[in-house]
Amino acid sequence: MKKCQHCGAPLQDGDRFCQACGAEQLPEEESKKRICPECGKWIQADGKFCPFCGAELPEMDDDEPVIDEATGTETFVHKHREPVRDEEPPRSPQPMERPVMTGRPTPPPFQEPPFYVRYRKGIITAVVVLILAVAAAVAFHFYGSRSSGDYVKDAVSLSQQLSSENESVTDTAKRLSQKSKGDDVDSLVKDLGKSRKNVEKMAKNYQPKNIPDQYASDDQAIREVMRDQMAMYDTAIAIAENPKDDAISEKLDDLRDEVQKAKKTARTIKVPGADFTGAVDGDNLVSYLEKYVSVQTKPDETPQPEVKADPDKQVLSSYASSKDLFNDDIGKLAGDINAYLSNHPDFKGNREFTSRANTLYIQISKTRNQLENDTSIDNTAMKYKLDALFQAEQDRIRGLYDGVSASQRGQDYRPGFQRGQAASNRYDKLNDEWNNL
């Protein structure tokens, strides 16, 4: 049975107007369809009420397409037609009968799901992957930075503890040097042994959970420094226990070599804020023990005065060794700077060389302070000559630092390097004089 295209009421064959609502019935080929906004089903475009859910239909927007049921094409020409009324008096409204649906209408074959429906799974997958990637990056940054920060903090703390223990050993050696011949030194020897055990305990307890890759070589150097520090103290204890040993000179030489080796290793550690050179800075330790041995082995009778060209040269030998090590480090820094310049026009963006120069400068300053405060050296003239050499080395470093810094600011690096070269020439001259003493 035919139904009203407007309200869905039953029609008799041949009815041109609906007896229920009076709407004109268009030919089948002019029938257009739209989607009900309430139930989402396809309905006639010219209806006022949905035949399925009974909802009142709003007027169609100009941009709402209508579907030609015969051809299956979309159009935006709605072709609304006003119903043609006969001159008969208006009929009283009759209750509309809700049509009985015999089946669900089949959507047109050309209907395509919306974009978000067709690609919903892909969109959801992409969003999930993006969220996981961001979460992984944040976690890596947070925990990686935290792990690196914890390691640096532990290394700085360890360097401070080791340096404090080395200061205690140096102070004990100083008290040994003040002892007269035949005085009891057992308590001081025990103090040296306690410091040695403390360093050994620190070495055993040093077990970092996570070692960042950039500090792997530094970590190995830290362990080597602790081994060197214990070896230094073992030699110092042997000297303090038996200053009259026939091989005492060899033991003092061994201690001097151990100090220089340990300091060289400590300078390779680049953990920010951790200075392990203080843990093995044994120049004063060597000087005090040399004086201690000299007092303990002094003959009872008054010896005939001997003419000594340089009585303090041997005492200053440990400082001279430090001078030579600093000179090697400065030469390597200058060589690396020249190699960098051969492949780069300037030093913009480079912070390595200024950092290395600053570290060297601070280390030389510490050595100069120790030399100045070393009361075991009586020959002040030789102290001044050695201090002048350290000053020349610092001037060389300052020239390199100023040149690199100027280049980083877009200025000419040559004036700074020229000052560094002048200081290098002055150092060579002073060093020749020192070696001829």
UniProtKB/TrEMBL annotation:
Residues 79-107, 161-192 are annotated as: Disordered. Keywords: Membrane, Transmembrane, Transmembrane helix. The chain crosses the membrane at residues 123-143. Residues 180-192 have a biased composition (Basic and acidic residues). Signal peptide: none annotated. The keyword Membrane applies. The keyword Membrane applies. This is Zinc ribbon domain-containing protein. InterPro entries: DZR. It comes from Megasphaera elsdenii. Residues 4-54 form the DZANK-type domain.
